[in-house]
Design goal:
The chain is α+β, with helices and mostly antiparallel strands. Strands 2, 3, 4, 5, 6 and 7 form a 6-stranded antiparallel beta sheet that branches. Strands 1, 8, 9, 10 and 11 form a 5-stranded mixed beta sheet that branches. A hairpin with a 5-residue loop joins strand 4 and strand 5. The longest helix has 30 residues. The radius of gyration is 35 Å and the shape is elongated. It starts with a helix and ends with a strand.
């Protein structure tokens, strides 16, 4: 009589064990599907190691020959000034000369002939001594008293080892995201699991102590001292 109940009892017991395993697996699966998104950031100060100053001669004269003669008079004055400030020939780069005829027009817009010629040439000076570039960008204005037609642009400052810094700053931002994730997990008595995905934001290179940002990134060339900021958005499993 007892034997009639042994087999059904065994079947029920086995089914209970199987169901328990299935439920346990299901709960584990649900638990592993829980994730958090965190944002990490890192900032580093960089000091420019290359300065560039550009200026352009713009000379207008009745003939192309007259314009070129005036350019030949003015150009050595600027070059000599730069050399007096410590720049060498290798630091000074003279670009191609361009000549443009300027036309007279009638009241109806008809071209009547050449009125004059405009000649221009860009001069570029560069140096690893960024402070010297800054100084000469200010002092070169003293040449204007000599009647020079030389328009100077704002100096530009670059950091030539930026590719190396980008790797380090992005790694630091990723580490910051992980630390933030761990803090959030600990606050809920959980632990941080596997990194599921990560997305690097655009780099922001801004003047020191600036809060400027842009969706497309900023690459400041106006300041000698800059800050590079990286942002990483990371998604982690919670265990």
């Amino acid at each position: 009589m007892k034997d009639r109940f042994i087999i059904p009892a065994l079947i029920i017991g086995i089914c209970a064990i199987v169901v328990a395993f299935i439920l346990a697996g299901g709960l584990k699966s649900i638990k592993s599907d829980q994730t958090i998104n965190v944002t990490g950031s890192a900032k580093q100060l960089i000091v420019s190691d290359l300065g560039i100053l550009r200026g352009t001669f713009n000379i207008d004269a009745p003939s192309a020959q007259d314009a070129y003669r005036e350019l030949s008079r003015q150009r050595p004055l600027v070059v000599q000034f730069l050399k007096s400030k410590g720049f060498k020939d290798a630091d000074i780069d003279l670009k191609t000369i361009n000549v443009y005829p300027q036309y007279n027009y009638s009241s109806s817009g008809q071209q009547l002939g050449v009125r004059s010629y405009t000649i221009n040439q860009t001069l570029e000076v560069s140096s690893a001594d960024v402070n010297k570039i800054k100084e000469v960008s200010i002092s070169i204005a003293s040449l204007f008293e000599q009647g020079l037609n030389f328009n100077v642009n704002a100096p530009e400052y670059y950091y030539t080892k930026l590719s190396d810094v980008k790797v380090d700053i992005q790694a630091a931002a990723a580490k910051d995201a992980m630390i933030r994730g761990e803090k959030v997990a600990e606050a809920t008595n959980r632990s941080l699991g596997t990194l599921k995905s990560a997305r690097m934001g655009v780099l922001q290179i801004t003047p020191e102590n600036s809060n400027m940002t842009s969706d497309y990134g900023i690459n400041d060339v106006s300041s000698i001292r800059k800050e590079i900021t990286a942002v990483v958005n990371a998604n982690f499993e919670i265990e």
